[in-house]
Amino acid sequence: MNEFMAENLARQKSGGRFVEEWPTSVIPIASVAHPGAARALSQVSAAQAALPETAGAVGGSDPPGLDFALAVARGLSDIPRRLDSRYLYDSRGSQIFEDICKQPEYYLTRAEATILAAAAGDIADKTGNVTLVELGSGSSIKTQILLDAFVSAYGSVDYRPIDVSASILEQAENEISARLPAVNVEALNCTYDDAFPHLASLSPAMLLFLGSSAGNLDSGESDHFWENVSTNLQAGDYCLLGIDINEDPRSLHAAYNDAAGHSAAFTRNLFARMNRELGASIDTGGIDHVARYVSRWRRVEIFARFNQGQRIDIVLLGSSFGIGHGELILTEVGRKFRLRQMVPYLCTFGLSAERIYTDPGRRFAVLLLKKI
Ligand SMILES: C[S@@+](CC[C@H](N)C(=O)[O-])C[C@H]1O[C@@H](n2cnc3c(N)ncnc32)[C@H](O)[C@@H]1O
Fold it and tell me: Fewest CB atoms within 10 Å of the CB: 135, 209, 319, 368?
Protein backbone atom coordinates (compact mmCIF):
# COMPACT_ATOMS: atom_id res chain seq x y z
CA MET A 1 0.00 0.00 0.00
CA ASN A 2 1.45 3.36 -0.95
CA GLU A 3 1.33 6.55 1.09
CA PHE A 4 -1.65 7.92 -0.81
CA MET A 5 -3.77 4.79 -0.30
CA ALA A 6 -2.77 4.56 3.35
CA GLU A 7 -3.68 8.18 3.93
CA ASN A 8 -7.10 7.79 2.37
CA LEU A 9 -7.78 4.62 4.32
CA ALA A 10 -6.85 6.40 7.55
CA ARG A 11 -9.13 9.29 6.66
CA GLN A 12 -12.03 6.91 6.13
CA LYS A 13 -11.36 5.37 9.53
CA SER A 14 -11.44 8.80 11.13
CA GLY A 15 -14.84 9.56 9.64
CA GLY A 16 -13.34 11.76 6.93
CA ARG A 17 -11.81 14.19 9.40
CA PHE A 18 -8.21 14.84 10.31
CA VAL A 19 -7.60 13.75 13.87
CA GLU A 20 -4.96 14.95 16.24
CA GLU A 21 -2.46 12.40 17.48
CA TRP A 22 -0.91 13.89 20.58
CA PRO A 23 1.40 11.69 22.61
CA THR A 24 -0.46 12.14 25.90
CA SER A 25 -4.11 12.67 25.10
CA VAL A 26 -6.56 12.74 22.27
CA ILE A 27 -8.34 16.02 21.79
CA PRO A 28 -11.91 15.28 20.73
CA ILE A 29 -12.90 16.83 17.45
CA ALA A 30 -16.39 18.29 17.19
CA SER A 31 -18.70 16.70 14.67
CA VAL A 32 -18.07 18.58 11.50
CA ALA A 33 -20.38 17.25 8.84
CA HIS A 34 -20.34 19.78 6.05
CA PRO A 35 -23.98 20.71 5.65
CA GLY A 36 -23.16 23.47 3.17
CA ALA A 37 -20.78 21.35 1.10
CA ALA A 38 -23.21 19.99 -1.49
CA ARG A 39 -24.74 23.40 -2.06
CA ALA A 40 -21.33 25.07 -2.21
CA LEU A 41 -20.01 22.48 -4.65
CA SER A 42 -22.93 23.08 -6.98
CA GLN A 43 -22.18 26.81 -6.75
CA VAL A 44 -18.53 26.10 -7.61
CA SER A 45 -19.64 24.06 -10.64
CA ALA A 46 -22.05 26.79 -11.73
CA ALA A 47 -19.37 29.47 -11.35
CA GLN A 48 -16.90 27.34 -13.32
CA ALA A 49 -19.42 26.65 -16.07
CA ALA A 50 -19.93 30.38 -16.51
CA LEU A 51 -16.20 30.99 -16.96
CA PRO A 52 -14.47 31.68 -20.26
CA GLU A 53 -12.13 28.97 -21.69
CA THR A 54 -9.02 30.63 -20.25
CA ALA A 55 -10.33 30.76 -16.70
CA GLY A 56 -7.69 29.95 -14.15
CA ALA A 57 -4.76 31.32 -16.15
CA VAL A 58 -2.76 33.88 -14.21
CA GLY A 59 -3.14 37.25 -15.86
CA GLY A 60 -6.42 36.26 -17.58
CA SER A 61 -9.53 38.44 -17.55
CA ASP A 62 -11.34 36.67 -14.69
CA PRO A 63 -12.77 38.69 -11.82
CA PRO A 64 -9.95 39.33 -9.30
CA GLY A 65 -9.79 36.58 -6.72
CA LEU A 66 -11.86 34.05 -8.67
CA ASP A 67 -9.10 31.39 -8.78
CA PHE A 68 -8.58 31.77 -5.07
CA ALA A 69 -12.33 31.74 -4.31
CA LEU A 70 -12.84 28.54 -6.31
CA ALA A 71 -9.81 26.85 -4.74
CA VAL A 72 -11.00 27.70 -1.21
CA ALA A 73 -14.54 26.52 -1.96
CA ARG A 74 -13.17 23.25 -3.38
CA GLY A 75 -10.84 22.74 -0.43
CA LEU A 76 -13.54 23.42 2.16
CA SER A 77 -15.88 21.02 0.35
CA ASP A 78 -13.21 18.30 0.43
CA ILE A 79 -13.40 15.59 3.07
CA PRO A 80 -11.30 16.07 5.11
CA ARG A 81 -10.84 19.75 4.38
CA ARG A 82 -7.53 20.82 2.84
CA LEU A 83 -6.47 24.05 1.17
CA ASP A 84 -4.09 24.43 -1.77
CA SER A 85 -0.74 25.47 -0.26
CA ARG A 86 0.14 27.74 -3.16
CA TYR A 87 -2.29 30.34 -1.80
CA LEU A 88 -0.10 30.69 1.30
CA TYR A 89 2.12 32.87 -0.89
CA ASP A 90 0.55 36.26 -1.41
CA SER A 91 2.74 39.31 -0.89
CA ARG A 92 2.49 39.06 2.92
CA GLY A 93 2.89 35.25 2.91
CA SER A 94 6.07 35.45 0.82
CA GLN A 95 7.57 37.95 3.27
CA ILE A 96 6.66 35.72 6.22
CA PHE A 97 8.24 32.75 4.44
CA GLU A 98 11.47 34.76 4.14
CA ASP A 99 11.31 35.33 7.92
CA ILE A 100 10.80 31.58 8.50
CA CYS A 101 13.90 30.84 6.41
CA LYS A 102 15.99 33.02 8.73
CA GLN A 103 14.89 31.28 11.95
CA PRO A 104 17.53 29.22 13.76
CA GLU A 105 15.19 26.21 13.86
CA TYR A 106 14.58 26.24 10.08
CA TYR A 107 17.71 24.31 9.04
CA LEU A 108 16.49 23.62 5.49
CA THR A 109 17.54 26.94 3.94
CA ARG A 110 20.98 27.00 5.57
CA ALA A 111 21.70 23.36 4.72
CA GLU A 112 20.73 23.86 1.08
CA ALA A 113 22.76 27.10 0.82
CA THR A 114 25.80 25.26 2.27
CA ILE A 115 25.46 22.56 -0.38
CA LEU A 116 25.04 25.07 -3.20
CA ALA A 117 28.06 27.08 -2.05
CA ALA A 118 30.21 23.92 -2.17
CA ALA A 119 28.76 22.47 -5.38
CA ALA A 120 27.91 25.46 -7.62
CA GLY A 121 31.21 25.39 -9.56
CA ASP A 122 30.94 21.64 -10.18
CA ILE A 123 27.32 22.02 -11.32
CA ALA A 124 28.22 24.82 -13.75
CA ASP A 125 31.08 22.67 -15.17
CA LYS A 126 28.84 19.67 -15.59
CA THR A 127 25.86 21.40 -17.27
CA GLY A 128 27.69 23.90 -19.46
CA ASN A 129 26.26 27.35 -20.17
CA VAL A 130 22.55 26.56 -19.95
CA THR A 131 19.53 28.76 -19.17
CA LEU A 132 18.57 28.49 -15.51
CA VAL A 133 14.79 28.15 -15.18
CA GLU A 134 13.51 28.13 -11.62
CA LEU A 135 10.07 26.94 -10.51
CA GLY A 136 8.84 28.52 -7.25
CA SER A 137 11.86 30.80 -7.15
CA GLY A 138 10.67 33.00 -4.25
CA SER A 139 13.36 35.52 -3.27
CA SER A 140 16.03 33.67 -5.37
CA ILE A 141 18.55 34.35 -2.58
CA LYS A 142 20.13 30.88 -2.67
CA THR A 143 19.94 30.86 -6.46
CA GLN A 144 22.33 33.82 -6.50
CA ILE A 145 25.05 31.37 -5.40
CA LEU A 146 24.49 29.43 -8.63
CA LEU A 147 24.17 32.57 -10.74
CA ASP A 148 27.54 33.78 -9.40
CA ALA A 149 29.14 30.45 -10.36
CA PHE A 150 27.66 30.52 -13.88
CA VAL A 151 28.80 34.12 -14.40
CA SER A 152 32.31 33.18 -13.19
CA ALA A 153 32.42 30.20 -15.55
CA TYR A 154 30.76 31.69 -18.65
CA GLY A 155 30.77 35.49 -18.26
CA SER A 156 26.95 35.73 -18.35
CA VAL A 157 23.87 33.57 -17.82
CA ASP A 158 20.15 33.64 -18.67
CA TYR A 159 17.87 33.24 -15.67
CA ARG A 160 14.07 32.69 -15.79
CA PRO A 161 12.54 32.75 -12.28
CA ILE A 162 8.91 31.59 -12.16
CA ASP A 163 6.62 32.08 -9.19
CA VAL A 164 2.96 32.50 -8.43
CA SER A 165 3.75 35.33 -5.98
CA ALA A 166 4.17 38.51 -8.06
CA SER A 167 5.66 40.70 -5.33
CA ILE A 168 8.55 38.39 -4.35
CA LEU A 169 9.28 37.77 -8.03
CA GLU A 170 9.55 41.50 -8.74
CA GLN A 171 11.73 41.99 -5.66
CA ALA A 172 14.06 39.17 -6.79
CA GLU A 173 14.23 40.47 -10.37
CA ASN A 174 15.15 43.99 -9.21
CA GLU A 175 17.74 42.73 -6.76
CA ILE A 176 19.45 40.43 -9.28
CA SER A 177 19.47 43.10 -12.00
CA ALA A 178 21.15 45.52 -9.57
CA ARG A 179 23.63 43.08 -8.03
CA LEU A 180 24.48 40.81 -10.96
CA PRO A 181 24.38 42.79 -14.23
CA ALA A 182 25.84 39.81 -16.13
CA VAL A 183 22.64 37.87 -15.40
CA ASN A 184 19.95 38.31 -18.04
CA VAL A 185 16.86 37.91 -15.86
CA GLU A 186 13.28 37.68 -17.11
CA ALA A 187 10.63 36.67 -14.58
CA LEU A 188 7.39 34.83 -15.29
CA ASN A 189 4.49 35.21 -12.85
CA CYS A 190 2.49 32.00 -13.18
CA THR A 191 1.91 28.53 -11.77
CA TYR A 192 4.10 25.49 -12.39
CA ASP A 193 1.45 24.07 -14.71
CA ASP A 194 1.28 27.26 -16.76
CA ALA A 195 5.09 27.36 -16.98
CA PHE A 196 5.66 23.80 -18.29
CA PRO A 197 4.79 24.55 -21.95
CA HIS A 198 7.53 27.24 -22.00
CA LEU A 199 10.31 24.81 -21.04
CA ALA A 200 11.02 23.35 -24.48
CA SER A 201 11.78 26.79 -25.96
CA LEU A 202 14.33 27.47 -23.18
CA SER A 203 16.47 24.36 -23.86
CA PRO A 204 19.38 23.83 -23.28
CA ALA A 205 18.29 24.44 -19.73
CA MET A 206 18.62 23.44 -16.12
CA LEU A 207 15.32 23.46 -14.26
CA LEU A 208 15.76 24.44 -10.60
CA PHE A 209 13.32 23.21 -7.97
CA LEU A 210 14.81 24.18 -4.63
CA GLY A 211 13.76 24.73 -1.01
CA SER A 212 12.17 21.26 -0.76
CA SER A 213 9.16 22.62 -2.65
CA ALA A 214 8.87 19.04 -3.99
CA GLY A 215 7.84 18.09 -0.45
CA ASN A 216 4.76 20.31 -0.69
CA LEU A 217 3.31 18.01 -3.36
CA ASP A 218 1.38 14.97 -2.18
CA SER A 219 2.09 11.72 -3.99
CA GLY A 220 -0.56 12.27 -6.70
CA GLU A 221 0.55 15.87 -7.30
CA SER A 222 4.14 14.68 -7.37
CA ASP A 223 3.44 12.17 -10.17
CA HIS A 224 1.68 14.92 -12.14
CA PHE A 225 4.56 17.36 -11.56
CA TRP A 226 7.36 14.98 -12.58
CA GLU A 227 5.39 13.73 -15.57
CA ASN A 228 5.20 17.34 -16.76
CA VAL A 229 8.90 17.96 -16.11
CA SER A 230 9.76 14.82 -18.03
CA THR A 231 7.49 15.67 -20.97
CA ASN A 232 8.68 19.25 -21.32
CA LEU A 233 12.44 18.98 -20.70
CA GLN A 234 14.50 18.00 -23.73
CA ALA A 235 16.96 15.08 -23.71
CA GLY A 236 20.25 16.37 -22.26
CA ASP A 237 18.56 19.12 -20.18
CA TYR A 238 19.22 19.14 -16.44
CA CYS A 239 17.13 19.53 -13.31
CA LEU A 240 18.55 20.60 -9.94
CA LEU A 241 16.34 19.38 -7.12
CA GLY A 242 16.68 20.32 -3.42
CA ILE A 243 14.97 17.93 -0.99
CA ASP A 244 14.75 17.50 2.75
CA ILE A 245 16.06 14.09 3.84
CA ASN A 246 15.82 14.67 7.59
CA GLU A 247 13.69 12.23 9.60
CA ASP A 248 14.49 13.41 13.10
CA PRO A 249 11.11 14.20 14.72
CA ARG A 250 12.52 16.69 17.22
CA SER A 251 14.30 18.94 14.75
CA LEU A 252 11.39 18.69 12.31
CA HIS A 253 8.94 19.73 15.00
CA ALA A 254 11.13 22.69 15.90
CA ALA A 255 11.60 23.74 12.27
CA TYR A 256 7.87 23.96 11.64
CA ASN A 257 6.99 25.48 15.03
CA ASP A 258 9.61 28.24 15.37
CA ALA A 259 9.72 29.98 18.73
CA ALA A 260 9.32 33.44 17.22
CA GLY A 261 5.94 32.42 15.76
CA HIS A 262 6.59 33.04 12.06
CA SER A 263 5.27 29.60 11.08
CA ALA A 264 2.05 30.34 12.98
CA ALA A 265 1.77 33.74 11.29
CA PHE A 266 2.24 32.03 7.90
CA THR A 267 -0.68 29.67 8.54
CA ARG A 268 -2.94 32.45 9.85
CA ASN A 269 -2.08 34.67 6.89
CA LEU A 270 -3.89 32.26 4.56
CA PHE A 271 -7.11 33.08 6.40
CA ALA A 272 -6.24 36.79 6.63
CA ARG A 273 -5.81 36.63 2.84
CA MET A 274 -9.34 35.20 2.59
CA ASN A 275 -10.55 38.21 4.58
CA ARG A 276 -8.65 40.63 2.33
CA GLU A 277 -9.54 39.08 -1.00
CA LEU A 278 -12.74 37.11 -0.46
CA GLY A 279 -14.51 39.13 2.24
CA ALA A 280 -14.41 36.03 4.43
CA SER A 281 -14.80 37.76 7.86
CA ILE A 282 -12.75 35.16 9.74
CA ASP A 283 -11.50 35.87 13.25
CA THR A 284 -7.87 34.84 12.66
CA GLY A 285 -7.18 35.22 16.39
CA GLY A 286 -9.34 32.10 16.81
CA ILE A 287 -7.00 29.98 14.69
CA ASP A 288 -4.04 27.98 16.01
CA HIS A 289 -1.13 26.71 13.95
CA VAL A 290 -0.63 22.95 14.37
CA ALA A 291 2.40 21.29 12.73
CA ARG A 292 3.25 17.68 13.44
CA TYR A 293 5.64 15.16 11.95
CA VAL A 294 3.92 11.90 11.01
CA SER A 295 6.82 9.46 10.86
CA ARG A 296 4.70 6.69 9.28
CA TRP A 297 4.26 8.82 6.16
CA ARG A 298 7.50 10.77 6.60
CA ARG A 299 5.81 14.11 6.28
CA VAL A 300 5.08 17.20 8.30
CA GLU A 301 1.39 18.08 8.25
CA ILE A 302 0.41 21.66 8.91
CA PHE A 303 -3.09 22.60 9.95
CA ALA A 304 -5.18 25.56 11.00
CA ARG A 305 -7.12 24.52 14.10
CA PHE A 306 -10.27 26.54 14.78
CA ASN A 307 -10.56 27.01 18.53
CA GLN A 308 -14.11 28.29 18.13
CA GLY A 309 -16.87 27.60 15.61
CA GLN A 310 -16.77 30.09 12.71
CA ARG A 311 -18.17 30.70 9.26
CA ILE A 312 -16.05 31.34 6.19
CA ASP A 313 -17.93 33.46 3.64
CA ILE A 314 -16.86 33.57 0.01
CA VAL A 315 -18.70 36.64 -1.17
CA LEU A 316 -17.74 36.22 -4.84
CA LEU A 317 -19.40 32.79 -4.99
CA GLY A 318 -22.23 33.60 -2.58
CA SER A 319 -21.18 30.62 -0.44
CA SER A 320 -20.54 30.17 3.24
CA PHE A 321 -18.92 27.28 5.12
CA GLY A 322 -19.39 26.41 8.79
CA ILE A 323 -16.18 25.36 10.55
CA GLY A 324 -16.61 23.33 13.73
CA HIS A 325 -14.98 24.07 17.08
CA GLY A 326 -11.66 22.20 17.15
CA GLU A 327 -11.74 21.42 13.44
CA LEU A 328 -8.43 20.99 11.63
CA ILE A 329 -7.99 22.24 8.09
CA LEU A 330 -4.86 21.00 6.31
CA THR A 331 -2.94 23.94 4.82
CA GLU A 332 0.35 22.32 3.79
CA VAL A 333 2.40 19.13 3.80
CA GLY A 334 6.19 18.88 3.88
CA ARG A 335 7.24 15.43 2.73
CA LYS A 336 10.66 14.08 3.67
CA PHE A 337 12.52 11.85 1.26
CA ARG A 338 14.85 8.86 1.26
CA LEU A 339 17.44 8.99 -1.49
CA ARG A 340 17.21 5.23 -2.06
CA GLN A 341 13.52 5.68 -2.96
CA MET A 342 13.64 9.11 -4.60
CA VAL A 343 16.42 8.30 -7.08
CA PRO A 344 14.62 5.29 -8.63
CA TYR A 345 11.30 7.20 -8.53
CA LEU A 346 12.81 10.06 -10.58
CA CYS A 347 14.35 7.51 -12.92
CA THR A 348 10.84 6.33 -13.84
CA PHE A 349 10.34 9.83 -15.32
CA GLY A 350 13.54 9.58 -17.38
CA LEU A 351 15.56 11.68 -14.93
CA SER A 352 18.87 10.11 -13.97
CA ALA A 353 20.83 11.30 -10.93
CA GLU A 354 24.24 12.47 -12.18
CA ARG A 355 25.36 13.90 -8.86
CA ILE A 356 24.01 13.84 -5.30
CA TYR A 357 25.31 16.44 -2.85
CA THR A 358 24.46 16.50 0.87
CA ASP A 359 25.27 18.82 3.75
CA PRO A 360 27.64 17.64 6.53
CA GLY A 361 24.66 16.85 8.80
CA ARG A 362 22.98 14.83 6.00
CA ARG A 363 19.69 16.63 6.56
CA PHE A 364 19.32 17.96 3.04
CA ALA A 365 20.23 16.77 -0.46
CA VAL A 366 20.66 18.47 -3.82
CA LEU A 367 20.33 16.16 -6.84
CA LEU A 368 21.65 17.04 -10.28
CA LEU A 369 19.36 15.13 -12.65
CA LYS A 370 19.72 14.71 -16.40
CA LYS A 371 16.82 14.08 -18.79
CA ILE A 372 17.75 10.92 -20.69
C1 LIG B 1 8.81 26.64 -0.21
S2 LIG B 1 8.89 28.16 -1.11
C3 LIG B 1 10.52 28.02 -1.81
C4 LIG B 1 11.08 29.32 -2.28
C5 LIG B 1 12.53 29.24 -2.78
N6 LIG B 1 12.63 28.33 -3.91
C7 LIG B 1 13.44 28.76 -1.68
O8 LIG B 1 14.11 27.75 -1.88
O9 LIG B 1 13.50 29.41 -0.65
C10 LIG B 1 7.83 27.80 -2.47
C11 LIG B 1 7.76 28.90 -3.54
O12 LIG B 1 7.02 28.38 -4.64
C13 LIG B 1 5.97 29.26 -4.99
N14 LIG B 1 4.85 28.39 -5.38
C15 LIG B 1 4.13 27.54 -4.61
N16 LIG B 1 3.26 26.85 -5.34
C17 LIG B 1 3.41 27.29 -6.63
C18 LIG B 1 2.78 26.93 -7.86
N19 LIG B 1 1.84 25.99 -7.91
N20 LIG B 1 3.19 27.56 -8.97
C21 LIG B 1 4.18 28.52 -8.93
N22 LIG B 1 4.80 28.88 -7.78
C23 LIG B 1 4.42 28.26 -6.66
C24 LIG B 1 5.69 30.09 -3.76
O25 LIG B 1 5.16 31.36 -4.09
C26 LIG B 1 7.06 30.17 -3.10
O27 LIG B 1 7.76 31.30 -3.53
Answer: 368
Say which residues have a Cβ less than 8 Å from residue 34's Cβ, sequence separation at least 6. 76, 77, 79, 81, 321, 322
Angle at 298 between CA 288 and CA 328, to 5 degrees: 25
Q: For residue 37, what pLDDT is reported?
A: 46
Sign of CA dihedral 122, 104, 209, 137: negative
Q: Which residues touch 172 (CB under 8 Å, ≥6 apart)?
A: 137, 138, 139, 140, 161, 163, 187
213 lines ligand 1 (CB under 6 A): yes
CA angle 85/199/169 to nearest 5° reads: 50
Q: Provide the residue type at 71 as one letter.
A: A
Alpha-carbon gap, residue 96 to 347, rounded angstroms: 35
Whose C-alpha lies nearest to ligand 1, atom 21?
191
Is the entire prediction scored with pTM above 0.90? Answer: no
Taken in order of first residue, the domains within the chain and their CATH numbers are 3-99+252-335 (no CATH), 104-247+337-371 (3.40.50.150)
Which pLDDT value is given to residue 63?
Answer: 77
Cβ neighbours, 10 Å, residue 271:
24
